[in-house]
Design goal:
The complex is a heterodimer of chains A (about 150) and B (about 270).
Chain A (H helix, E strand, L loop, with lengths): L1 E4 L2 E4 L8 H6 L20 E4 L2 E4 L12 E3 L10 H10 L9 H8 L8 H7 L10 H18 L1
Parallel strand pairs in A: 1-5
Antiparallel strand pairs in A: 1-2, 3-4, 3-5
Helix pairs in contact in A: 2-3, 2-5
Chain B lengths: L4 E3 L4 H10 L4 E3 L5 H6 L7 E4 L9 E4 L2 E5 L4 H6 L1 H6 L1 H8 L4 H4 L4 H7 L7 H7 L2 E6 L2 E6 L4 E3 L2 E2 L6 E7 L5 E7 L10 E7 L3 E6 L6 E2 L1 H8 L4 H11 L10 H18 L1
Parallel strand pairs in B: 1-3, 2-3
Antiparallel strand pairs in B: 4-5, 5-10, 6-7, 6-10, 8-9, 11-12, 12-13, 13-14
Helix pairs in contact in B: 9-10, 10-11
Chain lengths: ~150, ~270
C-alpha cells in the first residue's frame, strides 16, 4: 500500500482493513497521533486525508492508497500549521497534550478569515478534558490572525 | 485482523456481481459506524465489500421533479450542496448535527439508511420528506418508499444482494423544521429527534422513540385536519414506542416528543 505521508512517498505492508491510526503509530512510528476513544467521539486521532480532517481510528488503510496524509509531525508544512503550533504554546492551548495534535489538525483546514462560530464548528468533534475550550479557541483565533498577517 | 477480508470492486457492476456471488459480504463506505463495531468486537461480520471508491454512487442532482442524492454523498457534501440547501434545508440541519467535522467528512447518507439504526440522524428527515430509496442488484433496480423501508429493529426490506444506490426526495411544499435533543449540542447520539413539514399537509418523522424511525401519520392527520395540538400530542404518544436505554428513559422521550410537536407547530 503506497501513499504520501507528510509529503514523502511511503509504502506500508499491512492489512487493508487495519486502522490508519494503528499504521501511523505502528508501521510508520509516528506516535504524535493519539488514540482517545477509538470510536470517533473525541477527535484525538484526527489527521488530514487529502486536506480533509478525518478520525484515523475510523479509516481503513485501504482508503489512503494513493492519497496524501498529514499527521501532527507534518502539520508545520500546512498553510496554518506552524502558526497553530506556536499559538497553542503562547496562548496556553495545550495542557496534558493528548487532544492537541487533533485540535491542531482539525483547525488546519480553516481559512484565515474564519469566524469564531466557524472555529467552534470545526473543533466540535474534538474533546479536551484539561484546559476547557476558551484557551483552545483563543489559540486558533490567534493563529489565524498571525497567518493573515504573514500573507 | 487477518481473519478479515476486503473486496474492492472498481465499478458498481463489479460490486453487484460480488454481492450476488456472496450475499454475506457486508458493504462498507465511510466506515464511521462499522469501525466502531469492529474495534469493540460488536460487528460479527468478517467479509467486507468496499464501496468508497465507486463514483457511480456519488453526486447530488435533480432527476425529474425529485432531488437525487447518491448513496455515497457525505454529510459535508450535503451541507455544502446548494440544491439541498434550497430544497431540503432540514436535511442540511440534520447533517450538521451528525458527529463533528471528521465524521461529516466520511459518513454517508446511504450508510445512514442502510445501517438502519433507529437513532440515525437523517432518517426522521427522510420520513418527513416522503423520500424514496433506490435499490439495485444484478437483477435490476427498484425504487421503494422510505415509509415501510424498515421492518423491525435494524432490519429493512433491502435484500442481501441489493445496494442502496441513491435517495430521492420529492419537491416539498411548506415550511421544514428539525430538532435533535442530545446530551450536548455537538458529538452526541440523539435521545430523540424530530423532522417535520408544514404545508397543505403535515408530515412528521421522529427518531429514537421506537425500534425503527417512525412516520407519525396520526399526529400529522390531526394537525392537517385542523385538530388541536392536545389531540395531536395524544395521537403522537399512541404511535411511538420509546424505551429506557443508556441514553435516556422512555418517560423522558415521550414527554420531549410531545414538547417537540408543540414547538414545531408554534414555530412554523
Amino acid at each position: 500500500m503506497r501513499f504520501t505521508l507528510n509529503g514523502k512517498s511511503r509504502t506500508v505492508n499491512a492489512h487493508p482493513m487495519k486502522r490508519l491510526l494503528d499504521v501511523l503509530r505502528g508501521e510508520c512510528g509516528l506516535t504524535g497521533t493519539k488514540e482517545g476513544c477509538g470510536e470517533g467521539e473525541c477527535g484525538a486521532c484526527t489527521v488530514l486525508l487529502d486536506g480533509v480532517a478525518v478520525d484515523s481510528c475510523l479509516v481503513p488503510l485501504a482508503h489512503v492508497a494513493g492519497k496524501k496524509v498529514i499527521t501532527i509531525e507534518g502539520a508545520a508544512a500546512t498553510r496554518t500549521g506552524k502558526a497553530l503550533q506556536n499559538a497553542f504554546v503562547e496562548q496556553g492551548g495545550a495542557q496534558c497534550g493528548i487532544c492537541t495534535p487533533g485540535m491542531i489538525l482539525a483547525a488546519a483546514p480553516l481559512t484565515s478569515h474564519a469566524s469564531f462560530d466557524e472555529i467552534r464548528t470545526a473543533l466540535a468533534g474534538n474533546l479536551c478534558r484539561c484546559t476547557g475550550y476558551p484557551a483552545i479557541f483563543r489559540s486558533v483565533q490567534s493563529a489565524l490572525k498571525a497567518s493573515k498577517r504573514a500573507r | 485482523m487477518s481473519a478479515l477480508t476486503l473486496e474492492r470492486p472498481r465499478s458498481l457492476k463489479a460490486a453487484l456481481a460480488s454481492l450476488a456471488a456472496d450475499p454475506s459480504l457486508m458493504p462498507i463506505a465511510g466506515c464511521t459506524d462499522v469501525y466502531v463495531g469492529l474495534h469493540f468486537g460488536t460487528t460479527p461480520e468478517r467479509r467486507f465489500l468496499d464501496l468508497w471508491g465507486l463514483k457511480e454512487l456519488r453526486g447530488i442532482g435533480v432527476d425529474g421533479d425529485a432531488l437525487r442524492i447518491g448513496a455515497l454523498s457525505t454529510y459535508t457534501e450535503i451541507i455544502q450542496s446548494t440544491l439541498v440547501q434550497q430544497r431540503v434545508p432540514m436535511l442540511v440541519a440534520a447533517s450538521r448535527e451528525v458527529g463533528g467535522a471528521q465524521i461529516q467528512n466520511r459518513g454517508t447518507l446511504g450508510g445512514n439508511v442502510a445501517n438502519a439504526s433507529p437513532a440515525g440522524d437523517t432518517l426522521p428527515v427522510l420520513a418527513a420528506a416522503g423520500a424514496r430509496i433506490v435499490l439495485r442488484s444484478q437483477s435490476g433496480t427498484r425504487t421503494v418508499p422510505f415509509d415501510g423501508f424498515y421492518t423491525s429493529y435494524r432490519n429493512s426490506i433491502r435484500t442481501p444482494d441489493e445496494l442502496v444506490v441513491a435517495i430521492e426526495i420529492p419537491r416539498l411544499q411548506g415550511r421544514q423544521w428539525w430538532r435533535k435533543v442530545g446530551t450536548r449540542r455537538a458529538q452526541a447520539i440523539s435521545k430523540i429527534m424530530m423532522a417535520a413539514v408544514r404545508g397543505t399537509d403535515v408530515r412528521i418523522g421522529i427518531g429514537s422513540v421506537g425500534p425503527t424511525v417512525i412516520t407519525a401519520t396520526q399526529a400529522a392527520a390531526v394537525l392537517s385536519g385542523g385538530g388541536s395540538i392536545a389531540d395531536a400530542k395524544a395521537a403522537l404518544l399512541s404511535e411511538i414506542r420509546p424505551i429506557d436505554d443508556v441514553r435516556s428513559t422512555g418517560e423522558y422521550r415521550a414527554t420531549v416528543a410531545a414538547n417537540l410537536l408543540e414547538q414545531f407547530w408554534r414555530e412554523t
